[in-house]
Amino acid sequence: MAPHEPKSALKALLEILMVSTRLGFTSFGGPIAHLGYFHDEYIRKRKWLDEKSYADLIALCQFLPGPASSQVGIGIGVMRAGVLGGIVSFIGFTLPSVIALILFAVLLREFDVGESGWIHGLKIVAVVVVAHAILGMAPKLAPDLKRKMLALFAVVITLLWQTTFSQVSVILFAALVGFWLFRNQPEQEDSHIKVPISRRFAAGCLVLFFGLLFLLPIAAEATAWGWLARFDSFYRSGSLVFGGGHVVLPLLEREFVPTGWMTEEAFLAGYGAAQAVPGPLFTFAAYLGAVMGGWTGGLLGAAAIFLPAFLLIFGTLPFWGALRGNSKVRGALLGVNAAVLGILIAAFYDPIWTSSIFAPPDFAFAAILFSMLVYWKLPPWVVVLTGAAGGALLGLLY
């Protein structure tokens, strides 16, 4: 049987690549929609996992910082074909949007479109998308008074103390408060996830994750290598984000705009464009990297921001059963989730609202786009194209 194993493994990898690439071209609508696409393709049609294992995997990825839908895709690939399966699954799902956003960044670099009306329209799209995310997340992340107060604390501190350390400090404080307030959460069922990863390999991934998190800033400070500093910024952003792609916006904005690496106009234009492409919103990092350093910078940005997701999913899958059974860990996570909501609300005001809504016509157009997305249930790419066209028309009014 041994000679057939490589062929069987290769066949499994090719199948994962084919299916995940198709999903990468068609999965519009954000992380919740992605999980629906995954369920339909991987669970219902192909039966690669049973329902309980899929639910356990989603619970783990919601527990971890980083892009939850991408981590679920990686985890499915891992359970199907090991570590290589996870890597191949990620490449197929992510590469289409990475390529699209790098091409958009190259367009902005080659042509001076920073002041164009359609760019302003994309910035208004960013207002709409983040507002929709806040309304969808608030009932789940802050359902009671205690967590609402934690979210309010995060809003106030993040707006009044705008430093590199403010958001990390808010998240750590919220974890401690959650650990204390919600430490007696009811026990959950044990996880039944089985993965072909040894605990030794998993532990090595976790050591590497924390090692890079603490050593990269030191190395970037000690050297004059611009690419290393940018890699560190992307890596830290990918490591500290709870709540998905929309929450990474304020972290990335404060890493790259105040430093002068890019303009706020270019940043928000790319964020609007990221809504028009399928796949994970974290591929926005490819756009940012390409604006600063061409296509190689785009690939560097994508690799750096997704690296923590790989290390965390590889490092925690074998230990998830024990973690999930710890009520104190779950309590800390409840506090972190409430703080995430507050950080997102603060980002909605600054820089998104303050850089996009200047006059009553802007607000009126944002209300129309919001209705298209939320009430009329139109696809995000339709909203983005409408935003770009409407922005060009608004430009004629100013």
TrEMBL record:
Report the InterPro entries cross-referenced here. Chr_Tranpt_l_chain (IPR014047), Chromate_transpt (IPR003370)
Q: How does it sit in the membrane?
A: Multi-pass membrane protein
Q: Does the keyword Cell membrane apply?
A: yes
Tell where it localizes: Cell membrane
Q: List membrane-spanning regions.
A: 12-38, 83-106, 118-138, 150-181, 201-222, 272-292, 299-320, 332-349, 381-397
Give the Gene Ontology MF terms in alphabetical order: chromate transmembrane transporter activity
Q: Which GO cellular component term is one of those annotated?
A: plasma membrane
Any idea which UniProt keywords this protein has? Answer: Cell membrane, Membrane, Transmembrane, Transmembrane helix
Please give the family membership noted in the entry: Belongs to the chromate ion transporter (CHR) (TC 2.A.51) family.
Q: What is this protein called?
A: ChrA protein
Provide the species name: Planococcus lenghuensis
